[in-house]
Sequence to fold (415 residues):
Amino acid sequence: MGENIKKLFNDEIQNMRNYIMFEIKARQVELTPELKAKNRAPIPLSMGAPVDPVPDFVIKKAIEYMHVDNLHTYTTPKGEVKFLEAVAKRMKERFNVVLNPKNEIFSLIGSKEGIANLIKALTNAKQDEKEKDVILIPSPGYASYTQMIKVAGARAYEVELKEEDDFMPDMERVLDKYIEEGNNPEKIKALLINYPNNPLGCTCDLNYLQHCVDFCLKHNIILISDNAYCEMYYDESYKPHSALECKDAMKCCIEFYSFSKSYAMTGWRLGWACGNKDIITMLSRVKSSVDTGVFKVIQYAGADLLESPEGQKYIDEQNVKFKNKIQKFVDGLNSLGYKVKMPKATFYLWLEIPERYSDCKAFADDLLEKSGIVIVPGIGFAKNAKRYVRLSVVASDNDLSEVIKRMKEDGFYYN
Ligand SMILES: Cc1ncc(COP(=O)(O)O)c(C=O)c1O
Fold:
């Protein structure tokens, strides 16, 4: 059958590009021998994956639980009682949000999977663009949102996060614009927000979260809050909140959490969803059909980490480490003429590219091919981000110093 096999697949998948991060990774691998030969071995600042060791505590716990017999069998997609109860306790302590572990919390194989499955549950797959259900997403925003919405046969509508609005757009104005552009408001199923934001590193205040909750309640749509970076902040005055702290949030909101960033546990694939019980029930219909949950050992070790002082200590120490690391790197880039600001949260830098480059892809390619520095073009995060790139400040201190050194030696000054 050859090429014809591809034609059997659904139109979205046939026409889709691979996820941008994996395309960049493939290019990095392809160029590695050449880059090594000129003393420019690749330094990845592309994926949002911390390279630090995970908390020792969670490794020890996982090893202990590996030896427990009944933890090797199927779990339920919803999760182990021990895990769900630990999440409820954490949400109470951290945000003063009270949740029923029986029906308001659900374990996830990482938050990406949970958001993707929720979108599948929420939208009807359609081919005609005008007929598609719509999810409002932040722009710039996590590159996977647009991909997962496409996979579901739905449409993403980008809500611009602008500095002049302090990155907190007035949602009624956004809706007016959406309608003025000829879009059908009845098609909107959800507002997806992500504070702290990947890739901007901006945060929002509780008033703004309340604004989003009120907007969703008024227009009968769901609020999806992606709180993957809620523990990665560098200033107590910008300490992230949960949308579930807002009045009436439990009527319309589901929130997503991850172990990946705050505990550097990207490979463990552990997270949770919590919020409105009807939304959780609908999510569970998809999840119980397509997966069988997270390995019990991982849930048990994760539960202990959430409840332990070691877990909080790790988060606090990482935040000090990241703050120093990022500040030093920001200073290094600005010494080359760039105008980059210290983010309020996350480990991302959103960098304006030098004028001499035609667009972000040309800059990212040049930086990779000449200097072995792997970054992500801004168009992966927003249609109109042609003049920006994202740098993930996750490499070791030595590698970050090496990046600045190479940029100097290879002429990557801003002007
Ligand atoms: C905003 C945002 N949400 C979710 C995720 C996915 O995290 P997880 O590893 O929990 O699937 C990422 C990962 O980069 C992210 O940046």
